[in-house]
Amino acid sequence: MSAPQETLVLIKPDGVARNLTGEILSRIESKGYQLVDIRMVQPDRDLLRAHYAEHEGKPFYEPLVTFMESGPVVAIRVAGHRVIEGIRSLCGATDPTQAAPGTIRGDLGRDWGLAVQQNLIHASDSPETAERELSLWFKS
Ligand code: IDP
Ligand code: MG
Question: What totals of helices (H) and strands (E) does the chain contain, helices first?
């Protein structure tokens, strides 16, 4: 068996504010993945701009950065075979209205009519992204 993969999960400020941290962690643990490290972070703009650099210039970019710095975020290093793909599947589609029931965004998220979708969770989308994002959020 190959070495387990690692990914970065963020519980976004809406997830923390709505007391869904336990529910989201429980879904990740119930699926069978390992929580390797976890911390609550109040991210600054530099961290968020680096994290979301690929979206710079898009209409939702500034609202996204403002939303992400609006409150604490829970950052989690999660490990397991094919965990990157598996967590993206647990999250569901970006738009919580379209996210399938059974997924985190589909079951727990909704559209609030804002400039940015508040969809509870971020998860790395490729091995390269995971490595880059883990080094941003778990620096020390
Ligand atoms: P992802 O989180 O599913 O990977 P990305 O396309 O990487 O989605 O976008 C990052 C975040 O920006 C999303 O999770 C969501 O909060 C927000 N976002 C993405 N696309 C839109 C949009 O078209 N309208 C409003 N917000 C968006
Ligand atoms: Mg993304």
Answer: 7, 4
Q: Is the CB of 135 under 6 A from ligand 1?
A: no
Question: How is the chain split into domains, by residue range?
Answer: 5-137
Please provide the CATH number assigned to the domain covering 5-137: 3.30.70.141
Mutating to test ligand 1, I would choose from 24, 90, 94 the residue with most ligand atoms within 8 A of its C-beta, which is 94
Kindly give the number of the ligand 1 atom that is closest to the alpha carbon of 91: 3
Indicate if 51 belongs to the active site.
no
pLDDT one-digit tens code per residue, 43-91: 999 999 999 999 999 999 999 999 999 999 999 999 999 999 999 999 9
